[in-house]
Design goal:
It is built from 14 helices and 19 strands. The chain is an alpha+beta fold. The chain has three domains: 3-68 and 150-281, 3-Layer(aba) Sandwich (Rossmann fold); 71-144; 287-456, Hypothetical Protein Pfu-838710-001. Strands 11-15-14-13-12-16-17-18 form an eight-stranded antiparallel barrel, surrounded by five helices. It has a six-stranded parallel beta sheet with strand order 1-10-9-2-8-3, with helices on both faces. Strand 5 (176-178) and strand 6 (183-185) form a beta hairpin. Helix 1 (8-23) packs across helix 2, helix 3 packs across helix 4 (91-102) and helix 3 (71-84) packs across helix 6. The longest helix has 20 residues, at 248-267. The two termini are 45 Å apart.
Amino acid sequence: MAIKIDGIQKWCYANLDLIEESLQKNNKALVLISGASASGKSFASEILRDFLKDKGLTSTIISTDSYNIGISGIIVGKVKTNAFNGNLKNSEQIIKQVKDIIIDSSFDEKFCEKNLIKIKKACKHLIDKKDMNIFLNNLTQEFAKINFDEPFVYNLEGVAKDINLLLSGETIAKKEHSKIISEQFQTNEVIDGSKNDVIIIEGIYALNELLINNLGIKDSIKNYMDGSEKTLFLRRVIRDSKITSLNNAFTIRNYLDFVFPSFKALILPTKKLADIICRNDMTFEELRNGEITSKQQKVKVIDYKIIDLLKNNATSSKTIFERDLYIENKNSSQEELDNILRLRTISSDGKNYKLSSLIHKGSVMLRKDDVIIRPVNLLIKEGEFDLIYASEQEFLTKLKENGFIVYKIIVKERTRLIVEGEKYTIDKIEGQGVYIEYGADNNSNITKLIKQSSVKCTSFYS
């Protein structure tokens, strides 16, 4: 039965105990670290490597991500299987031609019309004329539903072969895969098994039977990194926005349609094989990092004369309706106020709402004044929702299928004004009152009156 652990330090010591036991029987110890995408496998592996070094043990890390066959191999392989029943001649040569054509294109343009024309020309001697249109049409169809998290994507037998060589003290060529170009690339680096006491393998399929069954060692140390649905979703979207050429709209649709369902079907079941299960939800440091930083002050109005004063002196005024839905894990016991996932819908009449944006808000910074400062990640910006979901119901249904619920809804009539060159926002919430939000640097006399006529509130209008 697996031991369940919270906290990386305790997890490191648990692995050390099993590593020392393994080294009593074997020349080298093998540590396998699996878990969902964005569960923290790479981070944990690096922490463990440094921890072992302090304990006098040398180790190396192999990521199964490095054995990704590349987007050209993935898409052509899918077309071969699904459109030609596995009978596409010259597939290796075709993959090479496709790779050469698409490698420098942005992700969205990999299989654009321009590249398809080039692929048709480059492969005309490799594909029968009667099959060419079928091949080209299926390239775009398979690309539209690509899932980077299927076992097919990784050369797991190649991973096992290299692991066995390292365990035998031999040398392997280091493999690399770029998330920017979505392809493997050559390196001149090697990994020498004779110089390492511990071989650490991390990846979503590190406990997959295709890998496990081909290993020459049976008493490997099996780890599974666990996390909440919200942690996994946020980490994946935020991470991919930084290290890949994917846009967030594609990442979110792909995650909800393919990645998380594949995780539940193919990766989660391997959890039962683990010796150690480590819970690794978003850390406080992660909650303090954002793409931008919001800075605001918000008060609840006591004296409503201040509202008339603002409106009467405004040089600019615009009113819309906003409906904010706060998203949480289905099994969460309480609201995570320091880890906010908010879906915003907007309306001009307060009746017909349309999808607007999806954001993540992290932990509020400690302040002695009334300024609310917190990091924000723009997951889907205004105007981008149309790229992936046709309606609010479609998006909410997909969230529900992936373990999320709506736990709070705030509907407000929002009026934005400019008074004496300073910006103000008036939020009228039925049954709750009226709130004013203003810039943290506002210093006019009207702002001073607002402070005197109101009481401080949090970003949840309490």
